[in-house]
Amino acid sequence: MSLIINPVEKLTPEVEQHRKTAYSVNPLFLNRWSPRAYSNEKISDDDLYSILEAAHWAPSAYNDQPWRFIVAKNEQQLKIFHEFLNPYNRSWAEKAPVLVLIASNKVRDNGETNGAHVFDTGAAWGHLAIQATLLGISTHAIGGFDKEKAYTLLNLPSEFELHAVIAIGYRGEKGSLDPSLQQREQPNDRRALEEVIFEVPENK
């Protein structure tokens, strides 16, 4: 039995229109983008935990696995999350059937500070987003939320650093968004590759 579920084999039409690469990459990486329009279709637990399982297999310094995923998937849990999202983000994210707060433990099991906790947890978010794309599910990372309120409402320990709330769901109609957001509901482009790559100069 294949371990690859619903593989993405080609670019979606909207991605093909808005994203071009200088070098060949698997379409999976381009088909991953961050929409704001979500349908009311529920995410199955199997798919949700498949997405989180993939995140959990990210690379980790000393195998500390500092990432933590606080999951809201029912009405009562989602209402708590909605309380600490800022109004702009809540206006669209409250339609997503699942919200996941990604945090990281700053302290290793031996009591020392984990200097790689943010780097490792960013890798976990990347794995999460790619696995969701493989399943035909969209994600959007939200940085605009009240962290202090989240700590209080969720009773989170101080050694956790909060990074982003991830909206997870199936794509909805662009027309369901506020008009100010509809024009932004498309894949964005990237800087030219040469702007972000710097080779070490050779000694003369």
From TrEMBL:
Protein's name in the database: Nitroreductase family protein
Family named by the database record: Belongs to the nitroreductase family.
Keyword Oxidoreductase set for record: yes
UniProt entry tagged with the keyword Oxidoreductase: yes
SUPFAM superfamilies linked to this entry: FMN-dependent nitroreductase-like
One Pfam family this sequence matches: Nitroreductase
Nitroreductase domain span: 31-78, 86-170
Keywords from the UniProt entry: Oxidoreductase
CDD domains assigned to the protein according to its UniProt record, in alphabetical order: TdsD-like (cd02138)
